[in-house]
Amino acid sequence: MNFPYYQTIIEILDTVFVLLAYLKLRNEYKKNGEENTLNVSRLILGYLIYFLCFNIGVLFPLFGLPIELGIKIMHNFLSTFFVFWGAGYLLKIPASMYFPKIKNILPLFTALYGLTVGLASLWHKEMPVIEKGVIKLNMPDWVVYTNIGTALAIVSVIVLFFLNGALSTSDKYIRRRSLLLATTAFCIGVSTLYWLPNTLIITMVITVALIGYFLLFYGIYYKPKKTT
Amino acid sequence: MAFHYWQITVSFIDSIFLFLILLKIIKEYRKNKIENVSNLALFIFFYLLFFASLIVGFIFFYRNDMIMGKLWHNVFSIFFLFGGAGFLLKIPASVYLPKIKGLLPYLTFGYGLAAALISFFNPHLPQFKNEVVLNNLPDWIIYNNIIFSLIIALTAGFFFVNGALAVKNKYLRRRYLILALASFLLGISALFWIPDPVFIKIFSIISIFAYGLAALGVYYQPKDI
Fold first, then answer.
1. Is A97 on the interface with B (CB under 8 A)?
2. How far is CA B179 from CA A92, A126, B7, B31, in A?
């Protein structure tokens, strides 16, 4: 059996970093009770479930179950649904300023989008395949490109948000943290190209993703010192 | 050769509505000098350039010059459309990204230029089918254009729905709802990028309603209660 060891090891490491980031944010929310902290933690929770679905799907062949079932149902359907559900909570943050009356429907809206593309992937006739240690998802073209476009649009806004934060502060530690989180978002943005069914691209971008999720964990745990 | 009267007529009607909207916004800017109004005016101006490029492209197609038609219809139009979107993005950015909001038009013009150059070097030429022109752009450009247009239009739609829920004046609420409907229809009409004659015809008709409603919403004067 050609087990996709390379991708699985990296995805498990990503999951650990995301889990640590989630735990820190939950803890933060318990302390400060701020709605926006809760929103970010739900975004990370969506990511965590996304990785769990993916990793469980990849383990299917080890138990004699078909990989098509694991990847198609667990990864291409469930994980896509959860990652876009989580994205709705991120969108709630700017929405609290611009759409306070309807901000709560955003997670529902993005979940609906996730459900649509998830179902389209589930019913797509092409099956995922393993090639040179990585999984080619083989989703429909429109799902691949709209997922990448949507993810890049969201991530670009986050990068710009942290860059703006870095330029707005004179505290070098806070600036460092903002730049760390901007780099995180940039790496995670680039890594969305893994939806493209090309072995070389997948291999490159999942490595970039590993750096991105490590920086996410580091940026969230990084404590800016007080400048005198 | 069947003349693609469909798209040229629709683009012409759409651009008249847009021109009326631009006139109203310029008038508004002269009165109040608000920066966000000038950003909106610049966005509409580039949108008009997008329509002008489409129409010039159609004229070249009519003269059977597919290369020049492609240049105007698939290259210049995309550059103007996405380049100009940066001015629209500057409006929310003035709250969240005040330090780098000036960078946004450069970023969107960069995306517009990249998409335009890729369209230019795409070996497929546009073609006629059932009285419409199929753009034959690369798949990733088509789907990215649709999703970016949808994201921008939906955001505008949500903004106006929120506005309608937040006001008590029924005339103002009516105006917001007209603009919200216009935004949602504009978002849906972005599906005209899909190179299919039926899609192009359906979404072209929807676009006329969308731009008409947008003009109506802009010119509608809410009464004071």
1. yes
2. 22, 41, 24, 22
> Are the CB atoms for A180 and A156 separated by under 8 Å?
no
B92 closest CB neighbour out of A94, A100, A142: A94
Residues of B in contact with A168 (CB under 8 A): 98-99
Residues in chain B: 225
User: Quick one: which H or E segment has residue B121?
Assistant: helix B104-121
For an interface test with B, the pick among A142, A148, A161, A175 (most B C-beta atoms closer than 10 Å) comes out as A142
Tell me the pTM. 0.83
The values of phi and psi at residue B137, to 5°, are -80, 165
Q: SS3 helix, strand, coil % of chain A, rounded to 5?
A: 80, 5, 15
ipTM: 0.78
Give A139-166 pLDDT, tens digit per residue: 888 989 988 988 888 888 889 888 988 9
Which residue in A141, A149, A164 is closest to B100 by CB distance? Answer: A164
**In contact, A222 and A194? CB cutoff 8 Å:** no
Please report, rounded to a whole number, the percentage of residues in chain A having pLDDT higher than 70.
96
The rounded distance, in Å, linking the Cα atoms of B82 and A153 is 13
